[in-house]
Write a structure and sequence with these properties.
Helices cover 59% and strands 6% of the residues. By secondary structure, it is mainly α. A two-stranded antiparallel ribbon has the order 1-2. The chain has a two-stranded antiparallel sheet with strand order 3-4. Strands 5-6 form a two-stranded antiparallel ribbon. Helix 1 packs across helix 5.
Length: 292
């Protein structure tokens, strides 16, 4: 028996909150990525890892906030805890691979295409792995063409977001990149949900897994707390907010001045005929040999 699927049981509340969560994670993660491009290689892995965790947590939280409004007629939904948190790990790792590629190779050319592709695949993998963790009295089937379209949307939007983050031109570029990343996640999510068909096999209630309400608590305590912590790092680092490159300190060595000025251009006066200058007459005493 084919059942009716409703992805908006709470109206526009869950889609809007989910989109905001995706934008928050994207904004923090992309700013960390932009910051990593302005520091030395010793600090770069830390910033890129923080950005990967922020984006991964944001898209994972977005997915399950959106799933709060997902209901299936005539059957309750339960979630497998192990599969659910495995989707979080997959999201962080795959997004991290894409971000590290862009962070070290630059947001252009082959590196941008590869990083955006891997990041988009990480978003899609998180979504479908989280869907595989659903337990219900039925079977889930997907339309192949719509699934492929959702993956393409994720890869294209993720590539555009990484390109915008790589420009490092200020706060407005970060906001635009975060909005694009939010569209990548939410657009991919609801496109993938449109590809879903549910075929019920009976009316028995599944006995394994947790309800969507039970998943809400760890989502708020864990990933949201991390996003708030990452947000505090962004707020207390003015270089991340303004997007300006750091000024390298002047190295002081013995015998070398601390500040060196640029050589000044010496302007020669116009050519004038040579003038003869008279030297002052100096009266010298004649040297006479002395008789000893």
């Amino acid at each position: 028996m084919q059942s009716t699927v409703d992805g908006f049981s709470y109206g526009l509340v869950t889609p809007l909150v989910a989109y905001l969560m995706a934008c928050l994670g994207g904004a923090l993660g992309l700013r960390c990525t932009a910051r990593a491009m302005l520091v030395t290689r010793s600090w770069r892995p830390g910033w890129l890892a923080l950005g990967s965790a922020a984006i991964g947590s944001g898209i994972w939280t977005m997915h399950f906030v959106a799933m709060m409004g997902f209901t299936i007629e005539h059957t309750p939904i339960r979630y497998d805890w192990l599969m659910t948190f495995a989707s979080l790990a997959v999201a962080v790792v795959m997004v991290g691979v894409g971000i590290f590629i862009v962070g070290y190779r630059g947001a252009r050319g082959t590196a941008l295409f590869t990083g955006g592709t891997v990041t988009g695949l990480g978003i899609a993998s998180m979504h479908y792995l989280g869907m595989a963790g659903m337990h219900l009295d039925g079977q889930l089937t997907y339309n192949t063409f719509t699934v492929a379209a959702s993956v393409v949307i994720a890869m294209a939007a993720a590539t555009a977001a990484l390109w915008a983050a790589g420009q490092v031109r200020g706060f407005l570029w970060s906001v635009g990149a975060a909005l694009i990343m939010g569209l990548a996640v939410t657009g991919m999510h609801y496109t993938g949900m449109a590809a879903l068909d549910v075929h019920l096999t009976g009316t028995a209630e599944p006995t394994v897994g947790g309800s969507p309400a039970e998943l809400l608590a760890p989502m708020l305590i864990g990933p949201l707390a991390f996003l708030l912590l990452a947000g505090a790092v962004v707020l207390f680092d003015p270089l991340m907010v303004m997007g300006r490159p750091a000024v390298a300190p002047v190295e002081r060595k013995p015998g070398i001045p601390a500040h060196t000025e640029a050589p000044r251009t010496v302007r020669h006066p116009a050519h004038h005929p040579a003038r003869r200058t008279r030297r002052p007459l100096v009266h010298r005493r004649p040297r006479t040999p002395q008789n000893r």
